[in-house]
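Milestone M4 deliverable, item 7.
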Amino acid sequence: MNSPKSTMAFSESNGPDHVVELIVRDIPPPPPPPPPPSSSDDSRDNVNDPNAPLLSRTQRPKINIFTASYPRRKPRDEVTKLLESETSPCTQFILWVWNESRYSGLLCMAFSSVIYFLMGVLSNIFSVQAIPLFETAFTRCTIILILSYLWLRRSEQPLFGTSNVRIILLLRALAGCVSMSSFVYCFQRLPFSQAVVLNSTTPIMASIIARFFLREKLKIADIACLACSFFGVLFFFREMLATQGQSVKVAGASDSNARPSHHIFEILVGIFSSIIGGTSYCLIRAGAKASDQPLLTVFSFGVLACPAMGICSYIFEDFVLPGFRSILLMLVLGILAFFAEVLLARGLQLERMGKVANIQYIEAALTQFWSLALTLLTPAFDHLAGILLIVVSVCCTMYIGPDKEIE
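Output delivered:
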């Protein structure tokens, strides 16, 4: 018998007119299973069926750019942490002074002068032991070196900058060491008034040197403000300078054979100190602008000044072991000196020398005002005139405004 899939055909005849033919065909294959219902079919079924769920198990909600988001309420602890992580007003003020203000250069120099004034006040109030000047300078330079090193390490910056600024940093360190050494020598050998007056010429020297080496413009307003401030310093010590001049004449007339002490060599050293100090300011500005990091100039100065002051203290002075209060005072003054140097470098980095150097005279005016308030005596005309000249000069500089260079 043949397979059921084969085709069989046979015919039968019942007569001459009727023929019956039988044909058997192959069995067709079973139909494929129907596909699963699509989402459109499900949606149609859901529409037709009111009891069906809105979303099937296999269907997930789609999120697009038009999907509305509803933020959840944060717990109280998270809100507290968020408020604590926000910047404090003190930090915002420091950032504003450092970089976010048009007056950042002038403000940094002003705060540096104020810190130097506070250092003088603390030295006068809490000083209980006479410490030699070179030993004091060595302590401050050591603290400046340590703090600047830690700061640079924490910010992960190179200690000596790139190769193109290392020569500038080296020259800045040399100029700073020579200026500090000669300045200490003048304070040891000259009367206090003469030493202060000579040191007050440093901003003027810095502005003149910047005119030639940094190609900065020295405007008439800058010259007038610098001259006004310097004459204010001369008013402070006019009586002392006149008294010292009269004493020298009297000593020369009383003893013709005696050699009058005019301190010519010490005065020349003081002038040299102011010139080198002005050069150091220009190198600070050049190094800070080239490296874009004013702290590098402070660190380079500490690297060279620390051993230099130690050697000078060992050679020229007798070591004095400070007491506990003296050590504490020296630590505080060293930390303040570090911040004053950083602000000084930042101010020189941001602003032109002829304008920012005049702000340094704030320290002299504040010192005289503090001495007058401390003694509670009737202020002399010279002191009031000097303070007024410096205040007017600084206010004019601030009123004219910053003059940042467009690089």
